[in-house]
Specification:
- GO terms for molecular function: beta-N-acetylglucosaminidase activity.
- By secondary structure, the protein is of the alpha/beta class.
- It is built from 6 helices and 4 strands.
- It has one domain (about 5-155, about 180-200): Glycosidases (TIM Barrel, Alpha-Beta Barrel).
Length: about 200
């Protein structure tokens, strides 16, 4: 029925999106969802070019970065992805994901993401450790990073993404505004306080 997998996926996604009344949040995860899965590169991938052309503009596209689990995310890569998809990507960040090896737990601060990155994104999702309690530091430091990306805004809200995009590159978070080490120390302080508070609760 369809000349390519990409056209089939885009057609089905578009139909579902329209059937649901074009909701404000509708996410599509492409088969090529990171650079290492693209041949030869994101910008030259026939699959991604078709997705970018055929997928309705209101549909968000998920991207994990250079790899499935990306140690770093750069503005240059996101520009390339935005160009081929014809929309800013939504990062599905697997930095802390441990479902592929549950013997490991990731407790470090959120890091390896270039300053000013949020202006290149439509959104960001964090795929956490499978162990619930192990995610205090990842989520806490992600919050610190996000506040720095908002340029010091004390109360980011659901319009935060649009606010960052409106600031533009020159007014985004400056180099050095987010310190992973300082974010880690803040998270550890709050985590210890949370643990101490839980220890005093009846039945603990």
């Amino acid at each position: 029925v369809f000349p390519s997998l990409a056209q089939a996926q885009a057609s089905v996604a578009n139909e579902v999106y329209q059937e649901l009344g074009q909701p404000s949040v509708f996410l599509f995860c492409p088969t090529e969802y990171c650079s290492s899965l693209c041949s030869p590169s994101p910008s030259q991938s026939c699959y991604l070019q078709t997705i970018g052309q055929e997928l309705l503009p209101g549909i968000g596209v998920i991207w994990t970065g250079p790899k499935v689990v990306s140690q770093e995310l750069s503005a240059v890569l996101l520009e390339e992805v935005e160009g081929v998809l014809r929309r800013r990507p939504i990062i599905w960040d697997n930095l802390y994901a441990n479902d592929y090896d549950c013997r490991r737990v990731f407790l470090g601060p959120y890091m390896g993401r270039a300053p000013g990155l949020m202006s290149r994104l439509q959104g960001l999702l964090l795929n956490p450790n499978c162990e619930l309690q192990a995610n205090f530091i990842p989520i806490h430091t992600l919050g610190t990073w996000f506040r720095s990306e908002l340029g010091g805004c004390a109360h980011p809200d659901h319009a935060g993404m649009e606010a960052v995009a409106a600031l533009g590159d020159s007014q985004g978070a400056q180099d050095g505004s987010y310190s992973p080490q300082e974010a880690l120390e803040l998270a550890l302080r709050d985590w210890v306080a949370e643990i101490n508070q839980q220890a005093l609760e009846p039945g603990r």
